[in-house]
């Protein structure tokens, strides 16, 4: 099935990433914690998905396992058609470099480099040249045209996070994982960054998976997946902030569905 997305001619909604019976266990015996309990979920191409749940529900663990930042105890994690389980370190590093973009709560910019140099740094390290046309489109999308020669200290928090967003987009990854990307931003800057992420999906055909605790942030997504006790317990399409908040109220303090 195909669907038309603004700015993208036709995006085939196949899975950019997929978990099948994904399980993650920490510790043994009395200290054993099941962070993910046989989770199966797809993250479709050219779609913005938010992952939500109470503290300790497994949302960050799911993202880390899907991004190859953490190993899985059982089950399957795939990026495209590549199975992450069992990949050797070198192959896993190459996959993360070539197919995955990351945006974290901390901006992780190098203070001695300009905004442009920070954006192209992963490709420079890999010895790859940036696609100038794509890079210009990314810079325009995130609104950094007049700031490329500035160093991080000369940029606001929102502008620094936009640099981080552009860095994640610049290499044309198959999927971007964002972990609380607006956690260190004020509401206005956060709204700008979320708008840029949404536009990257709608105008550039990017795939974004974002972990957040904020219903307002989740409302920028096309779909929200809810976790509790390490399991997917609900899903919401075309969410509003009020709808997300209402779903979240169903979880008690221990993360169980009421």
Automatic annotation (TrEMBL):
What keywords were assigned to this record? ATP-binding, Nucleotide-binding, Transport
Q: Which residue ranges does UniProt annotate as crossing the membrane?
A: none
Q: Does the keyword Ligase apply?
A: no
Query: What Pfam families does the database record attribute to this sequence?
Result: ABC_tran (PF00005)
Q: Which InterPro entries match?
A: AAA+_ATPase, ABC_transporter-like_ATP-bd, ABC_transporter-like_CS, ABC_transpr_LolD-like, MacB-like_ATP-bd, P-loop_NTPase
Please indicate which superkingdom the organism of origin belongs to.
Answer: Bacteria
The ABC transporter domain is annotated at 17-257
Any one of the GO CC terms: plasma membrane
Extract the SUPFAM superfamilies matched here. P-loop containing nucleoside triphosphate hydrolases
- A GO molecular-function annotation: ATP hydrolysis activity
- What protein name does the entry list? ABC transporter ATP-binding protein
Tell me what organism the protein belongs to: Streptomyces coryli
């Amino acid at each position: 099935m195909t669907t038309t997305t603004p700015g993208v001619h036709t995006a085939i909604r196949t899975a950019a990433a997929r978990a099948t019976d994904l399980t993650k266990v920490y510790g043994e015996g009395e200290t054993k914690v099941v962070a993910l309990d046989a989770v199966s979920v797809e993250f479709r191409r050219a779609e913005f998905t938010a992952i939500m749940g109470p503290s300790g529900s497994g949302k960050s663990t799911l993202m880390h396992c899907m991004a190859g930042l953490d190993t899985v105890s059982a089950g399957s994690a795939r990026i495209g058609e590549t199975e992450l389980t069992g990949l050797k370190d070198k192959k896993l590093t190459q996959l993360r470099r070539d197919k995955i973009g990351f945006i974290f709560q901390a901006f992780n910019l190098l203070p001695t480099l300009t905004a442009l140099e920070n954006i192209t740094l992963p490709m420079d390290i890999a010895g790859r040249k940036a696609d100038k046309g794509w890079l210009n489109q990314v810079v325009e999308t995130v609104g950094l045209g007049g700031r490329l020669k500035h160093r991080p200290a000369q940029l606001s928090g929102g502008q620094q996070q936009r640099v981080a967003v552009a860095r994640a987009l610049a290499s044309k990854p198959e999927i971007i994982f964002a972990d609380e990307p607006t956690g260190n931003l004020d509401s206005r800057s956060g709204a700008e960054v979320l708008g840029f992420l949404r536009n990257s999906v709608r105008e550039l055909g990017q795939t974004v998976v974002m972990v957040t605790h904020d219903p307002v942030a989740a409302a920028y997504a096309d779909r929200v997946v809810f976790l509790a006790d390490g399991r997917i317990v609900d899903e919401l399409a075309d969410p509003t902030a009020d709808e997300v908040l209402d779903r979240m109220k169903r979880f008690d303090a221990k993360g169980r569905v009421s």
